[in-house]
Amino acid sequence: MYPPMIEKTKAFIINRRVYRDTSLLLTLYSYDFGKIEGIVKGVRKIEDYGRYDGILDLFSNYEVVFYPRKSKFALFVQFYLLDSYWDSIRDYNKFSTLCSAIELLNHIMQPYEDNKDIYGLIDFLLSEISVNRTDIVFYTFLIKLLKFSGFSPQINECISCAKKIEYKGYFSISEGVLYCSKCGSVRRGLIPISSGVIKSINFLKDEPYVNIKRFLFTPKVRMDLENIIAKFLEYHISFTSKSWSELNSEPVYR
After folding, report:
1. CB 12 within 8 A of CB 60
2. Which domain holds residue 70?
3. Residues 235, 236, 241, 246, CA torsion sign
4. What are the residues whose beta carbons fall under 8 Å from the beta carbon of 7, sequence distance 6 or more?
5. What's the pLDDT tens digit per position in 126-136?
6. pLDDT in tens, 182-219
7. Which of 84, 119, 147 is the last residue of a domain?
8. Do 151 and 200 have their domain in common?
């Protein structure tokens, strides 16, 4: 449901593109309304620069005043810069990874679906990707996004016998659930999954952000985790990332 009349919120710019001679089409993720798609008119006119605090950088946080409209695009009329992350993400690997994370967010979330957890998750992504390990920040974002949006796989225990997995089990891409070695051995179409991958997913899904900084992957766990999550996303939401491979250019420590 579209909010009435004029509104004010804080929001991250997560996509921008030129529209005609003087305008921009923006996609924002806001604290109060979730994703908002809209137009800002005259922003590329020299005489109108005074209406905006800054130049509307991608991946920056603004206080935004806008008119929701029944058509697809809202009308943005004022921007006041709160935080800018643009200068801290000029590294190609980090920028590419950031774009991949936002690509998934845009694919999953529909306009005007209020979700304050996801707003906080974007804040974590932008503030940590410049100072922390790219792969840890990316997979934390990915797994928590699935949790907050309701798409998270259930891998706390075997779905059939409720047994905790100590060494390895089997994962069902289609069901999004876990089977132990015994229950999974009699079923078809399952993918082997190690306890390291299971523990990694559950840790990144449930731990507060402050604890994520001490987490590290082994190369094998990260590779298996990426393979399982990529297949899960492709099956359930028809999403295939264009830039996950950039993560592999950053070394992983044992």
Report:
1. yes
2. 7-84
3. negative
4. 32, 33, 65, 66, 67, 68
5. 999 888 888 89
6. 999 888 889 999 999 999 999 999 999 999 888 888 88
7. 84
8. yes
